[in-house]
């Protein structure tokens, strides 16, 4: 294979060989990166039924997106050769013994990888040291997740003859569903397995890296199996320094009866995080002597309504400092909407939360369990602090505002498209902010006034996000996001620069926001929050970057990473992959009828015209994909596979195609693909501005989409689906018009607009004719039509589901008074993001 080309992969060298195939290093000539190619044995490639089943399994495995799991990119076939395309992980495989202070962080990362996969219904089945690598940066990568099951020739069989340990016969081409020394007793017997089999294997691996000895051995596979079945683990062989909690964890992981075994790997992770102290006690936190950064960590336990919040102090102190953990919960009956931001003095947290449909800013002192809402801050987004920690600035209702946290009404500073894209405030009373998705950075006095541009956008697809003042108060950072993603960078600029200055220096490559904290710049790379020493006087980076927090939350607007810093070196961040939401069915009274899938980072559900499937965006925004749920079978399959973010699915009227937005070439463009998944997606519309599809007319003639413009904000456009396909403006004003929806007869468009406060739902004739009518009375967003055109739905400002009887003809539109159906629990989101869907009959 070396020197050959498979599809667009140039094979460079052989890396190894195992029962599941030969592994090669290859060059992806399209994306310019090295990958690992696992060439499947010929007997697999010839078995059409097995390969069809494997492709279905591989789609699920490719959905795993976690920093401790080696990614599966896809499956390629060329000239009769089939190969898995996988992330190339440099580094050595796991080997022991390791000192306890090194072994436990490794075990924690393995547990986090298993926990992530188990939460998605995927079991590894072949966890062993050879399937764990440690990268040169010290990150753990678990390999071959679920491949043993995917490659099984008869996954339905459970008899002993199909035992993985007996699978080395030539008829099975060396495929194993586990390795004898690491498989659980039930797995060795050929019985069905679940995540508890991985927990057993985790215990065996942890024992081995602590002792340097294989727990179960034998000269043959049969003898090794016998050892697994009868020998008790020798815990006396563990190092004397092994904490009692870890010894007990191993004992629980290695229970032969699965019912008595540890039931969830997340419990192992919690024990490893604090192995020597009881809950809420203080324990030492080892830190590499080469990194003079002390971490004093306040970790939080997250629920669906709570944030995984942590606070870390950066100081030049000895390498080992205490670690304190406590639980952070939202206020009573509240749901977090946005992650907290730490005050410059490090004493308070501010956050956005919703109580009974009302979204407000809240402030909580770090030395208190009580948080207080700030009156008048309805619909606040992306708050940021004044340098003296007295005020909070925030975006709301198309304005930039500030509020004194000690009391008093908010003050409007200037107009600013909402939601904004970050702000920062210096000691001289200057505020820098970004209002909207396609606006330059502006400055405005902290007392209010007319904003002046600080930067200019060179191209329609460019964006300048997340400004952050450096300690001198004159220089600031911002994230430069051009149309060409390869040129994304953190840029350093000065208040003395002219808006069109070409002298600004690119400080850091990549698409993540950055912030300064106590001699370091913090930024995100592949889901990990990194820190690199930074000389604030010379404005220069030095030294090497190193990880601070794994699995920091990203998503939402481009480049957003959910963390903030204080002057004293305190870091607040939100952990996890993204905002977790649950799809659920409700009737018109608000009674929950059932749930769809599992809690995920997902949004924008759209029901297919035949009511049999639901399309939804899933995963971190920058790397999200479209998934399809089959309602009758309660199963989901991945629909798009590009590494860049795909979102906003919209079905064609006949259900044969799905249009979606993708950031694979810079600003979101429109793509479409056969809903059967039988063909590759094609680009439908490319332009410089951000755009997202919202609806497709019932006659198939027009696609409606929302797009941004620097002067008019969000506008509604229509794309003819035949002829020259030249888009035309539907609604373009100084206000935002979002989430347009065609009436079933295609003569009217319902949409949301902020031309009044609060935003309202309107109906406008299409093409522009027949007048314009306000449908909501006390505010409304996200309209939806019933399929017969006789009823409209929308969400009120407090997220109640509202319904309006309507009667429309070609020229007239009549509507009744809105009535409340029920109080929803939909997650908070920007007004241009869909959050719910209605069945054709309006009953669910």
Molecular shape: globular
DSSP, total strands: 58
**Given the helix and strand composition, which structural class is it?**
mainly beta
The poorly predicted ranges are 150-177, 277-311, 315-327
Mind describing the biggest β-sheet? 6 strands, antiparallel
Span between N and C termini? 55 Å
Strand content: 35-45%
What Rg, in angstroms, do the CA atoms define?
28 Å
Helical element count?
9
Helical content (DSSP H or I, runs of 4+): 10-25%
Nearest-integer average pLDDT: 82
Strand order of the largest sheet: 1-2-3-4-6-5
Walk me through what this model shows:
- There is one protein chain.
- With 844 residues, the protein is mainly β.
- Helices cover 11% and strands 37% of the residues.
- A six-stranded antiparallel sheet has the order 1-2-3-4-6-5, covered by helices on one side.
- α3 packs antiparallel against α6 (195-211), α3 runs antiparallel to α9 (265-273) and α6 (195-211) packs across α8.
- The chain is globular, with a radius of gyration of 28 Å.
- 45% of the residues are buried.
Which terms summarize this structure?
single chain, 844 residues, mainly beta, six-stranded antiparallel beta sheet, five-stranded antiparallel beta sheet, 9 helices, 58 strands, 11% helix
In terms of topology, how is this protein built?
Layout: E1 5-6, E2 9-18, E3 21-28, E4 33-39, H1 42-45, H2 48-61, E5 72-78, E6 81-87, E7 92-93, H3 100-119, E8 132-134, E9 140-142, H4 147-150, H5 185-188, H6 195-211, H7 221-230, H8 244-253, H9 265-273, E10 283-285, E11 309-313, E12 321-323, E13 334-342, E14 348-355, E15 358-365, E16 372-373, E17 381-385, E18 391-396, E19 399-404, E20 411-415, E21 423-425, E22 430-433, E23 442-445, E24 452-453, E25 463-469, E26 475-481, E27 489-494, E28 505-509, E29 514-517, E30 520-525, E31 528-535, E32 540-541, E33 546-550, E34 563-565, E35 570-574, E36 581-586, E37 592-600, E38 602-607, E39 613-618, E40 625-630, E41 635-638, E42 646-651, E43 657-662, E44 669-674, E45 682-685, E46 691-696, E47 702-709, E48 713-720, E49 728-731, E50 737-742, E51 748-753, E52 760-765, E53 772-774, E54 781-785, E55 791-795, E56 800-808, E57 813-815, E58 819-823
Antiparallel strand pairs: 1-2, 2-3, 3-4, 4-6, 5-6, 7-8, 8-9, 10-12, 11-35, 13-14, 14-15, 15-16, 17-18, 18-19, 19-20, 21-22, 22-23, 23-24, 25-26, 26-27, 27-28, 29-30, 30-31, 31-32, 31-33, 34-35, 36-37, 38-39, 39-40, 40-41, 42-43, 43-44, 44-45, 46-47, 47-48, 48-49, 50-51, 51-52, 52-53, 54-55, ...
């Amino acid at each position: 294979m070396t020197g050959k080309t498979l599809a667009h992969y140039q094979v460079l060298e052989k890396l190894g060989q195992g029962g599941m195939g030969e592994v090669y290093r290859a060059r992806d000539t399209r994306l310019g990166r090295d990958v690992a190619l696992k060439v499947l044995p010929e007997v697999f490639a010839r078995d059409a039924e097995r390969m069809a089943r494997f492709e279905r399994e591989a789609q699920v495995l490719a959905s795993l997106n976690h920093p401790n799991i080696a990614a599966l990119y896809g499956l390629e076939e060329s000239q009769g050769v089939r190969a898995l395309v996988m992330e190339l992980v440099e580094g050595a495989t796991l080997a022991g013994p390791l000192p306890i202070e090194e072994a436990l962080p490794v075990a924690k990362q393995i547990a986090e990888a298993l926990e992530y996969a188990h939460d998605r219904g995927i079991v590894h089945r072949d966890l062993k040291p050879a399937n764990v690598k440690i990268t040169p940066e010290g990150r753990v990568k678990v390999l071959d997740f679920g491949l043993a099951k995917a490659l099984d020739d008869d996954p339905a069989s459970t008899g002993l003859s199909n035992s993985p340990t007996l699978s080395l016969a030539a008829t099975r081409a060396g495929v194993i569903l586990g390795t004898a020394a690491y498989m659980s007793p039930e797995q060795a017997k050929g019985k069905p397995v679940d995540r508890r089999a991985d927990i057993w294997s985790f215990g065996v691996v942890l024992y081995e890296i602590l002792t340097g000895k294989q727990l179960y051995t034998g000269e043959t596979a049969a003898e090794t199996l016998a050892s697994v079945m009868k020998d008790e683990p020798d815990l006396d062989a563990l190092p004397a320094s092994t904490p009692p909690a870890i010894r007990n964890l191993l004992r629980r992981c290695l229970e032969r009866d699965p019912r008595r075994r540890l039931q969830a790997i997340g419990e192992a992770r919690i024990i490893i995080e604090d192995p020597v102290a009881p809950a809420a006690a203080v324990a030492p936190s080892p830190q590499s002597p080469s990194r003079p950064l002390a971490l004093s960590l306040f970790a939080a336990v997250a629920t669906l309504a709570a944030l995984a919040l942590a606070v870390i102090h950066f100081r030049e102190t000895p390498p080992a400092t205490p670690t304190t953990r406590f639980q952070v919960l939202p206020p009573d009956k509240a749901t977090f909407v946005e992650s907290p931001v730490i005050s410059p003095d490090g004493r308070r947290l501010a956050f956005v939360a919703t109580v009974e449909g009302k979204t407000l800013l809240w402030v909580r002192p770090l030395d208190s369990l009580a948080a207080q809402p700030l009156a008048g801050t309805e619909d606040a987004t992306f708050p940021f602090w004044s340098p003296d920690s007295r005020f909070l600035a925030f975006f709301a209702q198309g304005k930039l505002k500030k509020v004194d946290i000690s009391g008093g009404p908010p003050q409007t500073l200037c107009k600013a498209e909402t939601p904004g894209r970050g702000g920062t405030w210096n000691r001289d009373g200057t505020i820098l902010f970004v209002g909207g998705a396609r606006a330059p950075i502006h400055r405005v006095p902290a007392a209010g006034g007319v904003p002046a541009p600080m930067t200019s956008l060179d191209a329609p697809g460019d964006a300048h996000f997340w400004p952050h003042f450096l300690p001198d108060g004159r220089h600031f950072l911002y994230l430069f996001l051009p149309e060409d993603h390869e040129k994304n960078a953190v840029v350093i600029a000065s208040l003395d620069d002219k808006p069109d200055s070409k002298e600004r220096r690119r400080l850091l490559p990549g698409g993540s926001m950055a912030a300064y904290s106590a001699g370091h710049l913090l930024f995100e790379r592949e889901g990990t929050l990194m820190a690199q020493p930074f000389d604030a006087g010379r404005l220069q980076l030095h030294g090497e970057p190193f990880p601070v927090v794994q699995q920091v939350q990203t998503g939402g607007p481009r480049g957003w990473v959910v963390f903030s810093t204080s002057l004293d070196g305190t870091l607040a961040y939100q952990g996890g992959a993204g905002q977790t939401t649950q799809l659920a069915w409700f009737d018109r009274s608000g009674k929950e009828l059932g749930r769809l899938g599992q809690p995920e980072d997902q949004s924008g559900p759209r029901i297919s015209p035949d009511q049999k499937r639901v399309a939804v965006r899933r995963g971190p925004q920058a790397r999200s994909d479209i998934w399809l749920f089959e309602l009758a079978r309660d199963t989901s399959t991945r629909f798009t596979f590009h590494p860049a973010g795909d979102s906003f699915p919209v079905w064609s009227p006949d259900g044969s195609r799905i249009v979606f937005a993708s950031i694979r070439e810079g600003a979101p463009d429109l793509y479409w693909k056969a809903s059967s998944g039988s063909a590759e997606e094609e680009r439908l519309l490319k332009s410089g501005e951000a755009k997202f599809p919202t609806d497709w007319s019932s006659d198939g003639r027009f696609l409606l989409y929302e797009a941004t413009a620097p002067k008019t904000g969000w506008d509604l456009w229509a794309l003819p689906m035949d002829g020259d396909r030249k888009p035309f403006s539907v609604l373009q004003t100084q206000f935002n018009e979002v989430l347009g929806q065609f009436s079933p007869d295609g003569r009217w468009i319902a949409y949301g607009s902020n031309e009044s406060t609060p935003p309202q739902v309107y109906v406008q004739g299409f093409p522009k004719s027949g007048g314009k009518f306000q449908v909501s009375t006390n505010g409304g967003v996200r309209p939806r039509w019933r399929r017969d055109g006789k009823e409209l739905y929308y969400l009120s400002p407090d997220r109640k589901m509202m319904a309006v009887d309507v009667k429309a003809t070609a020229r007239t539109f009549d509507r009744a008074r809105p009535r409340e159906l029920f109080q929803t629990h939909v997650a908070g989101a920007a007004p241009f993001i869909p959050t719910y869907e209605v069945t054709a009959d309006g009953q669910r």
